[in-house]
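Give me structure tokens for this 120-residue protein.
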Amino acid sequence: MQEKVTAISRAGIETEAPVVRGMVVRSKWAHNLLTFLMVFGPGLIVMVADNDAGAVSTYIQAGAQYGTRLLWLLLLLWPTTYFIQEMVVRLGIATGKGHAAMIYQRFGKWWGCFRSYILN
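Here you go.
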């Protein structure tokens, strides 16, 4: 059974808000670890979700052709990719909208279509 909290807004309207339940973390180390995992999880899922059959076959072909000569590029791009995904996840958490929806809202239909059709 979920408890309800009754609050009166500035307009004088009585509303009900659900009680938020969670756990209290008193250790700074544990708090930092849980915060990192909370942000890392969605970013990791988004990065892994792009590995479909076509991409994997391209990776195999590039690996056969170039071997490990391009490994330095992967090490250079991985942190950049991670931080971009993290920023997109934070944008979604803060606004409740996806990356494409925010581009449509902020920059207009042309840039939204460019992002949706050209970059995907």
